[in-house]
Amino acid sequence: MDVIYPRGILGQLVKEISKFPGVGLRSAERIAYSIILSGPSRINEFSALLNKAKSALSRCKLCGDISEGEICQICRDEKRDRTKICVVREPLAILSIERSGEYRGLYHSLDGLISPLDGIKPEDLRIGELMKRIDDNIEEVIIALDPSVEGDATSMYLADLIKKRDVMVTRLAYGLPVGSDIEYADATTIRRALQGRQEL
Amino acid sequence: MDVIYPRGILGQLVKEISKFPGVGLRSAERIAYSIILSGPSRINEFSALLNKAKSALSRCKLCGDISEGEICQICRDEKRDRTKICVVREPLAILSIERSGEYRGLYHSLDGLISPLDGIKPEDLRIGELMKRIDDNIEEVIIALDPSVEGDATSMYLADLIKKRDVMVTRLAYGLPVGSDIEYADATTIRRALQGRQEL
Asked: Which fold is adopted by the domain A80-200?
């Protein structure tokens, strides 16, 4: 049978919403229906907020995070440790690391990972910008990229480049997630946890 | 430690998005970041689509579904069985029932369920509108409300009201979801499945 529903403008809206990360088709339908049913004033408010966000938010000229103003809050903050830069794949990772409360240095988003298969080369990433920032009294670069083939390759590439400048390069420890059961950990995680074992 | 992130306009956007059904805070963050990072032209397009949806879509004057135009596609369709009305809690349920391909009659959204605890009384729902439609040659009303305390109470209330008009009232069968394992079914579902057992 033909699925006649939802088509037209409602169908378009569902399709657009389903492109959001982590939103499947069924969730997109629920969201689209709830937006439309909540009425014109709610749609107006949301649309106004989107437009406000569009004009007020841009990328920080230094770290690449989403920022109100040319330079973000963290890059402007004189109380932060300005000798450390933590390199992340994308701005959302900054949020996660900030939440840990463990790090008080600066950040730098690469906006991607080196991935020859997807045609992403080092020059497509914000690596040149990173190197310029490193020359400005940075003592340690902490690489916090995903534990994946691309993440590891990008980490190695960066480490080679940065070490030439006599700057310490570290990366996040890989191992068992805290609170997890060891029997549910995958083989690669356990391998990494063993390789990174520390003396007690 | 203070969570400084995300605040300001980005924080507002995350908060608004987290109000969408089924979207938690972390998903809202991912969605908000992806919207902002996708750039002004994508935001423009999405915002334009929202505004188009706002002006083009309204509630069908008959069934209450979301509709382009005063009367929706299903209510206008002369090929549908106009002697049957399927009563649902909300328009999204119409989508699910249409997908089953099993039903070719009309629909009616109550826009809620009777719930004394939440102060929702019969007169708060689209019951008056339903009764008017039933007087127009309807032979069967299929009640397709949630299998919950409120759903059952509303079904009973409607059945009493409709039977007085000499119209057949049926409701969806409750039982085991197709493809499920019986050992995972909850006690209430099994109870309903037993009560609704049919001779083979």
From this structure: Dna Topoisomerase Vi A Subunit; Chain: A, domain 2 (3.40.1360)
The contacts of residue A38 (CB under 8 Å, 6+ apart) are: none
Q: Where are the domains of chain A?
A: 80-200
Say what the ipTM of the complex is.
Answer: 0.88
Considering only CB atoms, which chain A residues are within 8 Å of B101?
A: 1
A107/A80 Cα distance (integer angstroms)? 11
Verify whether the Cβ–Cβ distance B90 to A37 is below 8 Å: yes
**Residues B35, A43: C-beta atoms closer than 8 Å:** no
A25 in contact with B, Cβ within 8 Å: no
Give the one of A10, A31, A91 whose C-beta lies nearest to B20's C-beta.
Answer: A31
**Interchain pair B47, A49: CB under 8 A:** no
Q: Would the CB atoms of B43 and A51 count as touching at under 8 Å?
A: yes
Residue B129: CB partners within 8 Å, gap ≥ 6?
Answer: B62, B64, B108
Give pLDDT tens digits for B137-163. Answer: 899 999 999 888 999 999 999 999 999
**B80-171: which CATH architecture?**
3-Layer(aba) Sandwich (3.40)
Exposure string for B16-39, b = 16+ CB within 10 A, e = fewer: bbbebeebeeebbbbbbbbbbbee
**Sequence-separated (6 or more) residues with CB below 8 Å from residue A175:** A189, A192, A193, A196
B50 touching A (Cβ < 8 Å): yes
- Chain Cα centroid distance, residue A98: 12
pLDDT digits (tens, 9 = 90+) for B102-144: 899 999 999 999 999 999 999 999 999 999 999 988 999 999 9
Distance CA(A50)–CA(A55), nearest Å, equals 9
B52 and chain A in contact, CB less than 8 A? yes
Q: Which of B68, B52, B67, B137 is nearest to B109 (CA)?
A: B67
Instruction: Estimate to the nearest angstrom the gap between the alpha carbon of A37 and the chain centroid.
Output: 33
All residues of chain B having their beta carbon less than 8 Å from the beta carbon of residue A11 are none
Partner residue opposite A57 with nearest CB, options B9, B16, B34: B9
Closest CA to B111 of B122, B95, B103: B122
